[in-house]
Design a protein that fits this description.
It is built from three helices and no strands. With 134 residues, it is mostly helical.
Length: 134
């Protein structure tokens, strides 16, 4: 009886470990998407304040990157769900898909942040050039 309980406990720990990693990847992807959306909103605010074409373009690119991050987060969530329902090689493939989608979301979030920074810089440059009398 004690052996059976130990075996069941071990199986539960292994099952939870198998499920937690894809789930963590999905959570990471969702956080990346949220970060990307926040960066895109900041870029849009900077563009609105500056009314500058370069800032508008960078803000638009930031929003596109944020949308890509959100799509990747959705893919990571789906893959994590698949990984938790599957077993063996299928679970491994789904977990890998969740990891890849999370990586894609993080990359898109980084791009959104870069685009947001570009929008802020363009807005700042526009403000500087207009205040200097040009």
């Amino acid at each position: 009886m004690k052996f059976t309980r130990t075996l069941l406990a071990s199986a539960l720990v292994v099952a939870l470990a198998a499920c937690s990693n894809p789930s963590d990847n999905a959570q990471d992807a969702q956080q990346s998407a949220a970060d990307a959306q926040q960066a895109a909103q900041q870029a849009q605010q900077a563009a609105n304040q500056s009314q500058n074409a370069a800032a508008d373009q960078a803000a638009s690119q930031a929003q596109q990157s944020a949308n890509q991050a959100a799509a990747a987060a959705g893919q990571a969530t789906n893959a994590a769900g698949n990984a938790m329902q599957a077993n063996g090689q299928a679970a491994d493939q789904a977990a890998d898909a969740a990891k890849q989608a999370a990586d894609n979301a993080a990359a898109s979030a980084d791009q959104a942040k870069d685009n947001a920074d570009a929008a802020k810089d363009a807005a700042k440059n526009a403000a500087n050039s207009s205040s200097s009398g040009h």
